[in-house]
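subagent[fold] <- orchestrator: predict structure for attached chain, return tokens only, no commentary.
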Amino acid sequence: MSDPHKTSKLLARQLRATLGAPSREALAAQFGPEASLDELRHLAARLPALLERVDTAYLDMERDLALVQRSLELSSAELNAARDVAEQANAAKSRFLANVSHELRTPVNGLAGMTQLMLMGPP
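subagent[fold] -> orchestrator:
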């Protein structure tokens, strides 16, 4: 079985590192040389404040995530609308080019036919 004194020192060291607590020497000056139990009490007293900070950070993160999701939804809606406009513009361009092509082809074909007839000579 492990030594309870070593266990309390290990817990104190881990809590001190997690909480950003004062060094063992500073606590020893405050609580005396055998300060491990007092040190644990001191660190344990700071746990509620740390948990509150974690909760606050978590709520802030959730709020920020909700804002980012909303922004992404708006961006997605804007992109979908822009895609729809681009598809409509592409369809209009295709119709225009088809009409222009038809309108040019008809007279050019007529000219080509008349030219062939003229080149054949008199009937």
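orchestrator: received. Logging for downstream: The first helix runs from residue 4 to 19. The chain has a mean pLDDT of 82.
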